[in-house]
Write a structure and sequence with these properties.
D-Maltodextrin-Binding Protein, domain 2; 2 domains; eleven-stranded mixed beta sheet; signal; ABC-type tungstate transport system periplasmic binding protein; PBP_domain; ABC-Tungstate_binding
């Protein structure tokens, strides 16, 4: 997909959302984002607020973090919003991106059937919980698509000293469609799953799965913004990308993030992270 095709309406063919779709906006910034923040509504909310402030239209598509970064290596976007630090570092080291900034975070949780056949409910350490799931060979659903969620899950299995395999470890064949479909599939299968809290909060009223393990630092989920390197892609809207990235870490945007979801769900779905409060390990 080239930039002209994107601007010309290819959004719908890739399941994208956008704002202010009036013809020929004066300026457009193209954002490739991990799916979760789009599904949760924070990306549309930020895009709308930025448009109201500046008149600049932010158009975005969603994909897993791995796919998002690969698309951006072809020069199709101006910025990426992603959540897999190991992949982000590689993207930066290869010269495709510039100026990684922390924008927000939430956390992952371990969910499973209320009957909890592996007996992990209330465990403090998610690594120990995964060992117990593997030991019981209790069904576990994974996205399996190199998305940020999948990368985080694999990292936790690695920390637990386990390489999950076998019939109990189910790779969801439509995992690349996002966390929402993956969570619904796990619910249908009565399986354990590692999921971001925002997706869980938004969908839990329609599910039978229970929240079993939460609150450990290993489960933090950091979301960043990275500008595409205009020296690699001359057609990138470098000025627009800079303006949007600067705004995302401003008090206005961070305040929007801090309150997002509170009125509807009784809890924020994300936490602002542009200040010096919380940082991913390894930075």
């Amino acid at each position: 997909m080239n930039r002209r095709a994107f601007l010309g309406g290819a959004l719908g063919t890739v399941g994208a959302a956008s704002i202010a779709l009036a013809a020929e906006p004066s300026e457009v910034v193209l954002l490739a984002s991990t799916i979760g923040p789009i599904d949760a509504g924070i990306v549309p909310a930020l895009a709308n607020a930025f448009h109201a402030r500046t008149g600049v239209v932010v158009r975005f598509v969603g994909a897993g973090t791995g796919a998002t970064l690969e698309m951006s290596k072809r020069g199709e976007f101006d910025l990426v919003m992603v959540h897999a630090l190991s992949l982000e570092k590689k993207f930066l080291a290869e010269g495709f991106g510039l100026d990684r900034r922390d924008v927000m975070y939430n956390d992952f949780v371990l969910l499973g059937p209320a009957a909890d056949p592996a007996g992990i409910k209330g465990m403090d350490d998610p690594k120990a919980a995964l060992r117990r799931i593997a030991g019981a060979q209790a069904r576990f659903v994974t996205r399996g698509d190199n998305s940020g969620t999948h990368v985080a899950e694999k990292a936790l299995w690695d920390k637990a000293g386990i390489s999950p395999q076998g019939g109990w470890y189910e790779v969801f064949e439509k995992g690349s469609s996002g966390n929402g479909p993956t969570l619904r599939h796990a619910d249908e299968r009565g399986a354990y799953v590692m999921m971001d809290r925002a997706t869980w909060v938004v969908l839990k009223a329609k599910l039978s799965l229970a929240l079993l393990v939460e609150g450990h630092p290993d489960l933090f989920n950091f979301i960043s913004i990275i500008r595409i390197n205009p020296e690699r892609f001359a057609k990138a809207n470098a000025a627009g990308a800079q303006r949007f990235a600067d705004w995302l870490v401003s008090d206005e945007a961070q305040g929007l993030i801090a309150g997002f979801g509170q009125a509807e769900y009784g809890t924020p779905l994300f936490f602002a992270n542009a200040g010096p409060k919380v940082r991913p390990p390894g930075l």
